[in-house]
Amino acid sequence: MKFPFVLYDLATLGDRCDGLSWHPFHPGVEIHYLYQTESGAAAALLRYQPGASVPEHFHTGHEHIFVLSGSQSDENGRYTRGTVVINPPHTKHSVTSENGCIVLAVWETPVELCQ
């Protein structure tokens, strides 16, 4: 990837990302990394199919989520298009998307799956 990397018109990105290279992340959830660093910082687009979920995980650093299309939910609420959610370090949650969604996720450090 060439830097600076620029995402234009972020508000409509969820409507125009079919041509990206998506990779399996969790059952029903695909990922397209924008960047990953050796220290664990990363940014990616996540595409949830209707009914898909990500199991409970622990945040070792800040996580920023921007809902680009559809909606997703966790134990704290339901988040629709245009919503920004910031999960602080030392918190955990699980995520589901009843009708599907695309989100931009930015991780300060890697997340850890709870077992």
Describe the 3D structure.
With 115 residues, the chain is mostly beta strands. It is 0% helix and 56% strand. The protein is built from no helices and ten strands. It has strands at 23-26, 29-36, 42-48, 52-59, 63-74, 77-80, 84-87, 91-97, 101-107, 111-113. It starts with 22 loop residues before the first strand and ends with a strand. The model has no long low-confidence stretch (mean pLDDT 92).
Overall average residue pLDDT: 92
As a whole number of angstroms, the C-alpha radius of gyration is 13 Å
Percentage of residues in DSSP E strands: over 45%
Order of helices and strands: EEEEEEEEEE
Structural class of the helix and strand makeup?
mainly beta
Any idea what the shape is?
globular
Can you count the beta strands?
A: 10
Largest sheet: 7 strands, antiparallel
Which segments are poorly predicted (pLDDT under 50) over 5 or more consecutive residues?
Answer: none
Total number of helices: 0
